[in-house]
Amino acid sequence: DVQLQASGGGLVQVGGSLRLSCAASGFTSDEYAIGWFRQAPGKEREGVSCMTSRDGMTYYADSVKGRFTISNDNAKNTVYLQMNGLKPEDTAVYYCAAQSSAVTIATNTCPMDPNSYGVDAWGEGTLVTVSS
Predict the structure, then answer these.
(1) SS3 for the chain, per residue?
(2) Residue 66: how many CB atoms within 10 A of its CB?
(3) What are the pLDDT digits (tens) for 28-74?
(4) Which of 22, 50, 68, 75 has a CA 20 to 30 Å removed from the CA of 60?
C-alpha cells in the first residue's frame, strides 16, 4: 500500500516562507501523481497544487499561482511544496495525497479535486499558520 507522510508545517508571519515535504513509499510504478490539498477551519478541503512523477506536469490553484512551487525528488520519493509570500488565508491543515498509477497513466493528469477518482492514499496533515 502507498503511504504518505507530510511534514514541514509551522507558524510563520505574513510574507514568510515554508517548505512542506511529502515522503512517499509503496508505489509499484514510477508513474504516479501527488497532490497537495488544504483545509481551513470551517471550509471544505481544496486542491492547492499537484504534479505527475514522470513528466513533471504541474498545476496550481489560482490562489497560489506565483507564490507556491511544487517539485519532486524521485530518488527520495518526496514531493515538496515551497510556499512563499504566505498570507493569513493560507492558514490551513495541508495534506498530500496520491493518485494511483493506473489512473495517472490512463489520464495523464494530477489530482486537484480531493474527491477525484483515483486518489487512494492520504498522508496525515501538517498545520500551517500564518500570523498577521
Answers:
(1) CCEEEEECCEEEECCCCEEEEEEEECCCCCCCEEEEEEECCCCCCEEEEEEECCCCCEEECCCCCCCEEEEEECCCCEEEEEECCCCHHHCEEEEEEEECHHHHHHHCCCCCCCCCCCEEEECECEEEEEEC
(2) 9
(3) 888 889 999 999 999 999 999 999 988 889 999 999 999 999 999 98
(4) 75
Strand-strand pairing, 92-99 and 126-131? antiparallel
Q: What are the Cα distances from residue 9, in Å, to 1, 104, 132?
A: 25, 27, 17
Nearest to 97 by CA among 56, 74, 125: 125
Q: How far is CA 112 from CA 14, 34, 99, in A?
A: 25, 9, 10
Instruction: For residues 47 and 29, give the distance between their C-alpha atoms in angstroms, rounded to a whole number.
Output: 24
- Report residue 8 CA to chain centroid gap: 12
